[in-house]
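Subject: design request, 104 residues
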């Protein structure tokens, strides 16, 4: 009986861990795919509309408007890393969206 219970516990532990591993592998795959996006499919920060910006991961209406407001007040973006100067966008957010945007 103890062997049966022990075996069930081991199987349960493995079953619980399996979806987590698969989810992480899936996430890594999507990051690799986005990093290889051709430049013509990326969004230009200097010409993007609110509608285009909200398609970026983690960017909603308010962040999209903040990007455009920054662009209007400061001038065109010179590099993608400059996004961290926009209110509400930090290094973590930049790492999520930098492979989807470019500066021409």
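Subject: RE: design request

Done. Sequence follows.
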């Amino acid at each position: 009986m103890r062997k049966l219970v022990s075996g069930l516990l081991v199987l349960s532990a493995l079953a619980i861990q399996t979806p987590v591993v698969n989810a992480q592998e899936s996430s890594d795959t999507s990051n690799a795919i986005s990093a290889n996006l051709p430049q013509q499919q990326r969004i230009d920060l200097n010409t993007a509309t609110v509608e285009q910006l909200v398609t970026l991961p983690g960017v909603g209406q308010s962040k999209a408007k903040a990007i455009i407001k920054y662009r209007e007040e400061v001038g065109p973006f010179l590099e993608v890393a400059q996004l961290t100067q926009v209110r509400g966008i930090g290094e973590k957010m930049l790492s999520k969206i930098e492979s989807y945007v470019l500066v021409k």
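The first strand starts at residue 43 and ends at 44.
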